[in-house]
Each structure stands twice: as C-alpha cells, then as structure tokens.
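>> received
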Amino acid sequence: MSDAFLYAAARTPFGRFNGALAGVRPDDLSATALTGVLAKAPNLDPSALDDVVWGNANGAGEDNRNVGRMAVLLAGLPVSVPATTVNRLCGSSLDAAIIASRTLESGDADVVVAGGVESMTRAPWVLPKPDRAYPAGHVTAVSTTLGWRLVNPAMPKEWTLSLGECNELLQEKFSISRERQDAFAVRSHRLAARAWDEGFYDDLVLPTEGLARDEGIRPDTDHGRLAALKPSFRPEGTITAGNASPLSDGASAALLGTAAAADRIGLRPLARIAGRGAHAVEPQMFGYAPVEAAERAMRRAGIGWGEVGAVELNEAFAVQSLACVDAWGIDPEIVNTRGGAIALGHPLGASGGRLLGNLAKVLCERRERWGVAAICIGVGQALAVVLENVADGVNRG
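>> returned
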C-alpha cells in the first residue's frame, strides 16, 4: 500500500457569528478554501484531482446538495473532478482527510483534496412536515446552528442534553475548576494573537471578504474579564462564553497525495498521515472521547506520548480540553501552541482541516517528528490523526 502525505493546507479566516463572513454562503466559502489550497500547487493540473472529500455538519441550508461538489463547480474546476460530502459533525473535515488518506493508501487515487465548511450564521431554521394535512396547531421553527434538533422521542434524555450541560457533567466528574478553565482560555487568546503577530498564519489563511485575521481573537482577554462572565448553562456552573469556543463561519482545505504524485503536484510533502483513530462514548461524555481516539491513532502509528512533540486539540470547551490533556499526562505546553478554537473559532465542519494545517506547520517550525490532531464530536465521538514530519533535517533516531 502507498503512504498518504499532506502537501499543503489553507483556510479562510474564521469569522464570528453574524460577523464579517455572515454574508458569504458556505458553498462560496468552500470554493475559496479549495481554490486557495490548489493555488499553492500551481503546477498541478486541476483535472488530475481524483476526488474532493468535503466535511459539513449541518447541511440544512445553502450547504445542501453535496456542498463539496458545489465547491468544485463554483471554484471553476473541470466538471470531471468528482466530490463527496461527509458529516461527522465537528469532526467532518478531519473525517474527510481520513477518508482521503485511506483512498490514497489503497491505490484508488493519487491526489485528493479534503476539507470542510460551516456557516453557523447562515444555518437556517427548519420546520418538520406535519403528520397529517392541515394541522390546527402552531409549528415551531428549529435552529440548525448548533446542537440537537427534531429529537427522536426514543432517545434517552441524558443523551440529548445541551453541549454545555454535557460539559458541566464532565467538569463535575473530573473536578476541573472555573479558574483552570478561564486560564486555559486566556492562554488560547494570547497564543493566537502572538501567532498572528509573528506571521505564523500568513501562509495558511486566505483573506476573505475583507477579513484578513480570525475574528474572534481578543488579545486583551485576561483572568479578571473572564471571571466576571456569568455561567451560560447553570446558575452556579463553570462554563461561560469566555471559556468555550464561539459560533463561527469558515472553511478549510488540505491537499493530499501519494509520494508518487509529488512531481505532478509540484511540491514536497509536509507530513505523512501515520495513524488514525476513532472512538465513541456515551453521548453526554463526548468531550472526553479524544482520549482514546488519540491512543488508537498512536498505536497504529507505532508511537507513544513520549515521542509526540506537538498536539492540536480542538478546544470545543476548556473543560473538555483540560480533561483530555490531564488524561494523556502530557506537557500542556506542547498543546495548541499557536492558539486554539476558543480564540480562533470553531466552524464545525472546517475545524479538523485547521487542526491538520496547524499541526503540520508547527511540526516543521519546531523540528519535531510526531504530532497528534484530535477533535471531540457531539453525540459521543472523537477522531484523531498522527502526522509524521517528513521535512529534511528532522531527527529520526
């Protein structure tokens, strides 16, 4: 079997809910990310793309009807380029990269783009169809922005709690204080702001609709400001708008290929996809699922935590991120060194692609060989990917 390599990554800035990207359709965001990542490989003939695998969590509005294929057409690629859209909620674009890597390894493709999109601002309200014609009562429109909607009554109530309440349960289980969560959030904002100031994101992020930077970063965030925020889900709870990821809009893309496709792509690969892991738990404990997903990915890569030099863990909530880092027993300083989703944003279907792009660049920057990208997923799942830095000069002893 062939190995699968990451050759390039690109994304839009991540916009705030109802912010700078609110007027941009998700299929247009997708086309921007797809065009941007292909622009990094100018020698690649777009007709040589074997497939496009795109992630999307909602798919209830302008991102319906296979938004991956819409992106291909809107980007002006040859109509012969196929595309599919996958939905694993928050893990959708990481799942897209996993699917693409397996396709490459099996020999079914040589060059694939994986990515994902979410416009949480533009996610529509939906109405269920009535059970019978001409119902007399009122009908409620349900938001598709985030969380459960049109819940099956057969589902146990403890499985269908809000994401915030689920993480308050996680906080109770592991006794992770409000102070630790707020400190984690402050770190995320400060590292993200520093990374932008130092130019880390300059070649990863495509200015879009006049937005050049991630819109949710607050460089002046401090412990006092976060401590003043009221809990969002329980009167005496610990989770606030400041220590959880915001609703966001954005898209990401990654160019993947085999070693044999390097000449065709015209680039040297950045990293090898060395291991993959998926795991599931009780839906209300979804925030803890990355613990085992990462362990599985590392076992398949043949490495342990002692060899890992960088971790990109999606910060859905500070509490679940801290629970995972504690369980792994790793140095927190190797985690999200360029900021995380609390600051950068979390457009559901796009976040996995951001993690991969960040991780590959951090590995090269720090000259580390192994890195892990992991993400929790609503309804009790998680995904993880191990990347091996294949740049020259990395210690492989």
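>> The chain has a mean pLDDT of 96.
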